[in-house]
Amino acid sequence: MGRHTFLVPEDSEGIRLDRFLVSVLPEQSRSQIQRLIRQGHVDVAGHAARQNLSVKRGQRISVLIQAPLDPEMKPEALPLTIVYEDRDVIVVDKPAGMVVHPAAGHATGTLVNALLHHVEDLSGIGGERRPGIVHRLDRGTSGLMVVAKHDAAHEELARQFREREVEKEYIGLVWGEVQAGRRIDAPIGRDPVNRKRMSARARRSREAVTRIVRAEHLNPALTLVRMAIHTGRTHQIRVHASAIGHPIVGDPLYGGIRRRVAGDIKAVMHLERPFLHAAMLAFKHPADGRRMEFASPLPEDLQRVLNELNAKRHRTD
Hints:
This protein is an alpha+beta fold. Helix content is 21%, strand content 26%. The chain folds into 3 domains: 2-65, Structural Genomics Hypothetical 15.5 Kd Protein In mrcA-pckA Intergenic Region, Chain A (Roll); 82-163, Pseudouridine synthase (2-Layer Sandwich), CATH 3.30.2350.10; 167-281 and 298-316, 2-Layer Sandwich (Pseudouridine synthase). The protein has helices at 17-24, 30-38, 111-118, 151-162, 236-243, 266-269, 300-316, and strands at residues 2-7, 42-44, 47-48, 60-65, 82-85, 89-94, 142-148, 167-175, 183-185, 189-190, 198-199, 209-219, 222-229, 276-284, 291-295. The longest helix is centred in the last third of the chain and has 17 residues, at 300-316. It is globular, with a radius of gyration of 20 Å.
């Protein structure tokens, strides 16, 4: 709720206004953004924006979001993929497009709403808007999350995340050729210009480490990578991939949709979200300390892209 102002960065020039706003206001859906534009709540350079406008570098964009957050969080019978559950924890496979917890403009349709329908109670340590939530995934990222059913489980899992005992690996598709074994050690902080964006060059930043475990070069333009993160900063993999010049394919916020190569690769040009999936999660059970490890296959939309790329590669071999 309130007015949000953004400056268009260089790597977002030429993107349609609604797509740019979805990238910097991830809690808003594209239909919500388009409605705000139609209602005159979006200004570009001091003038009411047009629906089909493309943004330019350096433009100042202002958005007024008036919809208040519903004070009552309601259980909702939403599709929920439960990978594992006991009396202490739930491991879920979050789909892309689902926000983890309610926020301004997204009081319903979240993972928390679905979880509240599935169980009677969750840990309250995360606050009234984040029951059970120990860690998060971005709206556009799919994959594994662990949720705490009660406060004791939450405290122990939070300790493991804090002490970097939790293992997390992601599968991503990046632009360019990147090599396995690379370690990206670049502190991350809030971008001083665009507050919805993180940066590896922010003045105030926190330690962040990402390691590229495996890399498969699909062609000179694309590499399929498996990445392990040793810290859990906001947008960490997306920021680090962009910082080394290999942004995640389909990522509008960090330069992943503006790349063009000879004879555009049709398989990725229409990807609706970043090609990023939380594929492995391992932690110690909060009650008895036994190691718990879970794996999640690529969801259908990402596997379809990969199948097309592999088919094209085999035809040219």
